[in-house]
Write a structure and sequence with these properties.
Blueprint: H1 2-19, H2 24-43, E1 50-55, H3 58-74, E2 79-84, H4 87-93, E3 101-104, H5 110-120, E4 122-128, H6 134-142, E5 146-152, H7 166-172, E6 177-180, H8 183-191, E7 197-199, H9 204-211, H10 219-225, E8 229-236, H11 238-249, E9 255-261, H12 266-275, E10 280-282, E11 296-298, H13 305-308, E12 314-317, H14 330-333, E13 339-341, H15 349-357, E14 360-362, H16 366-378, H17 380-396, H18 400-411
Parallel strand pairs: 1-2, 1-4, 2-3, 4-5, 5-6, 6-7, 8-9, 8-12, 9-11, 10-11, 12-13, 13-14
């Protein structure tokens, strides 16, 4: 199995070099990966004490940040190297307050892995949630480097827990300790004989909980909202937007809408705005507009959504109407906002929990969306009650980062 995997990785590397230019995101990642080893050679010395943190993309960075911050404070004598696999993580967080060096993770080829680890020579490796690369993990284990996996979430359907998943199972055993989001994940790990596991919870609760203490002021959104009821639709995809646009076009003029698409494709955004029959403004052009007269604000940029939720009365979170995966519901929940999502959310325990508690509604079609949004738009009592349920849910589940930090100091004392 290992030989077959390495052949696939080598073929993928050749394919990316030959055809990566056909896809902008792939090309950006390929170009970034080609520079990673040189950057590490320039920035790190053999005498440096290094901690390496790996995040697949932006979401994993945000998830890991509440733990990275106390980790950096505790081990100030170390240099921190951070890697991303996805351009959407690297490009947005290549300059961050935690890492001394940020690079793309080179492809998981045996020879490249050895060069990467020779250059970084980490004493501690932290992986966030998943993105478990076999050659990296096996070589880390071979070199006796302390490694942990945080905010892990496992499901019975995953190959690790199937009769045919023996080769993948050994990857989990490369970690010195695994910190899981829930008890079910711990039970699954125990079922295959892995016992160095702690149920810490999800570090995202710490991240979004801390957001409340930040400055979330956006004067232009306050001006646009103009003290009216505001629905914020965050990280939407076309399958979300087709329902939302119908609702917006049939809504009363005293309701405001903010749409923050997940995909910043200009043609897609243009197509969407053409279908909206209400006065609409784009973030890229808002300074030339009178915002109080607009009903819809389209956020055609990244990095603002977390703060925009501060102005939401209701949130629609995208991704679950199709198969792309539900986006972060906790960012809205922490502000005490009731939430509406699509139908495909079975792998998102926080959404299930908030639905059970009464803070979230799942919809599967336009009629259901219309009913759910109307319930929150026009029933202030229910809106307030559901929002407070979500806020309390976040508060009750904070503390994962502290649990991980306390346990880590028992196994990593350098």
């Amino acid at each position: 199995m290992g030989l077959f995997y390495n052949i696939i990785v080598d073929l993928a590397a050749i394919s990316v070099r030959l055809f990566g230019g056909l896809h902008k995101k792939t090309q950006k990642g390929q170009e970034g990966r080609s520079r990673s080893l040189n950057i590490l050679a320039q920035e790190l010395k053999e005498t440096d004490k290094v901690i390496w943190m790996h995040c697949s993309s932006l979401g994993e960075y945000e998830q890991g940040l509440p733990f990275f911050e106390p980790l950096k404070k505790q081990y100030q004598e170390h240099k921190f190297v951070m890697t991303f696999f996805s351009p959407s993580g690297y490009e947005i967080r290549k300059n961050n307050p935690i890492a001394d060096v940020v690079v793309y993770l080179p492809l998981d080829q045996k020879s490249v892995v050895k060069k990467f680890l020779d250059l970084t020579h980490p004493e501690l490796v932290v992986f966030v949630k998943y993105d478990l690369w076999p050659n990296y993990l096996l070589e880390i284990k071979r070199r006796n480097i302390t490694s942990i996996l945080i905010s892990a979430l496992f499901r019975p359907s995953q190959a690790y827990f199937k009769f045919y998943g023996g080769w993948l199972k050994q990857l989990l055993f490369t970690f010195d300790h695994i910190f899981t989001q829930d008890t079910g994940s711990k039970v699954l790990l125990n079922s295959i004989g892995y016992n160095n596991v702690t149920v810490s919870g999800d570090t995202r609760f710490d991240r979004v909980g801390n957001q409340i203490n930040s400055d979330n002021t956006l004067d232009f959104i306050a001006e646009f909202k103009n003290n009216k009821t505001c629905v914020v639709a965050g990280s939407t995809w076309p399958e979300d937007e087709v329902l939302l646009i119908d609702y917006i076009n049939n809504s009363k003029d005293d309701v405001k809408f903010v749409i923050a698409p997940h995909n910043m494709d200009l043609n897609q955004i243009k197509s969407m705005t053409k279908q909206i029959q209400k006065p609409t403004v784009l973030y890229s052009n808002y300074k030339n507009e009178t915002l109080v007269n607009k009903s819809v604000f389209v956020v055609d940029t990244i990095g603002l959504l977390t703060k925009i939720y501060n102005y939401a009365d209701i949130a629609y979170i995208g991704g679950a109407m199709g198969g792309t995966g539900l986006h972060n519901t906790l960012e809205a929940a922490t502000f005490g906002v009731p939430i509406v999502i699509g139908k495909n959310y079975k792998n998102f325990p926080e959404a299930k929990a908030m639905q059970t508690l009464g803070g979230l509604i799942s919809i599967s079609n336009y009629d259901a969306l219309h009913s759910a949004l109307d319930e929150f738009v026009y029933n202030l009592e229910n809106r307030t009650k559901s929002g407070q349920i979500n806020k309390q849910y976040v508060e009750d589940n904070k503390g994962a980062s502290e649990i991980v930090m306390n346990e880590l100091q028992k196994i990593f004392k350098k």
